Amino acid sequence: SVQLVESGGQSVQAGGSLVLTCTESRYFNCMAWFRQPPGKDREGVAVHCHRGDITEYADSVKGRFTIFRDIARDTLSMEMKHVRPEDSAIYYCARGDPRPHKRLRGDDYVAWGQGTQIVVTA
């Protein structure tokens, strides 16, 4: 079965930085990070699609988070800088070949990781 594994979950103080890494079992066009804060709905964070070299970020993380896709190593890393308490969430890696308008929606992704928890303390 398809599988993704996330690493890098931790507790960090507001203003700090961390890196998350997702490793996929096989190639898909797009790899993305989503997150679900406590008591809230899942939201897209960032996505990279190999075809066309497309990168998109949610408005809430632009200028703070950066993703790095390594096709050869089957990984998608996300550097998170200047983190805020509202960044606290379970972060999930996903893969698939979504329609362009669904890249940060999650509807068209075919596999999801189990998630890794980030807690940002005030």
Largest sheet: 7 strands, mixed
Task: Identify the overall geometry.
Answer: globular
Average predicted confidence as pLDDT: 94
Distance between the termini: 40 Å
Quaternary structure state of the chains depicted: single chain
Poorly predicted regions are: none
Beta content? over 45%
- Percent of residues in helical segments? under 10%
Number of helices, counting only DSSP H or I runs of 4 residues or more: 0
Give the beta-strand count.
11
Give Rg in angstroms: 13 Å
Q: Give, in order, the helices and strands.
A: EEEEEEEEEEE
Key attributes of the depicted protein:
single chain, 122 residues, mainly beta, 7-stranded mixed β-sheet, 4-stranded antiparallel β-sheet, 52% strand
Task: Write the SSE topology.
Elements: E1 4-7, E2 10-13, E3 18-24, E4 30-36, E5 43-49, E6 54-57, E7 65-70, E8 75-80, E9 89-96, E10 109-112, E11 116-121
Quick rundown:
The protein is mostly beta strands and 122 residues long. It contains no helices and eleven strands. 34% of the residues are buried.
Structural write-up:
- With 122 residues, the protein is mostly beta strands.
- The protein is built from no helices and eleven strands.
- The termini are far apart.
